[in-house]
């Protein structure tokens, strides 16, 4: 696989059972040296041996969640020495289905390890597999599937909707689901064939339940933003209910604004209300933020500012063109910065980041830039971020769990699912 702009891969490791036969290098040495043993005599003078088992990680790092059948697929291989060849095994039959060569070998002087990549993009068969190298051991099992990201998007969406049914959903996770519905309508389904997407119907029912129970404080600016966005998206299906939501959004915002000055949620609500109503009072208040945005680049790290600016860029109302230029320029600059620094940020052995939360935030910023540009390179980098978060890191930790309804992954899954037909089979030229 060809690399580009210094961008390194992110190949991740998961949660299934692992046989570590043949692991070499620091992992094996750590296993033997880390074994502590204490001998205690019982009353019958029978020795009792207490062992503290070392923490072992595989030397072949894969995405434990899986790989899209038609996309690039590679794993990181580490060890004191690296073999030339790797094998891809069918986990059910134990048969070798693909053989390849370890590429792009490099040395980590600090860890005393070599690392290379096992690229098996050519293999597209669906199923469950694992990788193995002589003297290195085998990887965790992983799947190869068609429409993998579409399935992950649907799975996470259903988790959030289940929380809506149980009245345990948070406003922000519903907001992210609603944003995914707006940006990627091609992923919406209509099982009952009533011409209204099922997810939007479910969100509408949640709003009705919330209103009846008065579950949110009257001054919740984020809730006002959600109501305004829902009104905008839903008006083509039920104008009456959409209007009711917009009226409620205005009421909630007025109370929120009476207790707060400028803040992230207020800004987000202003952009949604301005787009939905076109009222100049909202537009003027948005323009009052211009000085802050001109002199600040860190605002993109605040999700309310980030998605609020995306809403402002997409409105058909009369907008401040200079403010739009500021938003666009800084979003493009941030997207390019993250793309260029990808290898440094998510290198399997030498990653420099502040944890999963920061990585998810950076991937979200890049996905917003990619929504505007539809850049194949950015799509590839977003997928690499996911691979890293799902296991390709020094400790082989998978940070993703759909049961925790981690809504920050939702737009990433949606974007990759929506671009699957475009990117399938493409390669990156130097």
UniProtKB/TrEMBL annotation:
Family membership, please give it: Belongs to the glycosyl hydrolase 9 (cellulase E) family.
* Molecular function GO terms recorded: cellulase activity
Q: Which Pfam families match?
A: CelD_N (PF02927), Glyco_hydro_9 (PF00759)
Listed A to Z, the keywords are:
Carbohydrate metabolism, Cellulose degradation, Hydrolase, Polysaccharide degradation, Signal
Establish whether keyword Signal is in the entry: yes
Per UniProt, residues of the Cellulase Ig-like domain are: 57-137
Tell me where in this chain the Glycoside hydrolase family domain is found: 221-399
User: Per the UniProt entry, what species is this protein from, by scientific name?
Assistant: Candidatus Acetatifactor stercoripullorum
Signal peptide region = 1-21
Q: Which BP terms in the Gene Ontology apply to this protein? A: cellulose catabolic process
> How is this protein named in the record?
Glycoside hydrolase family 9 protein
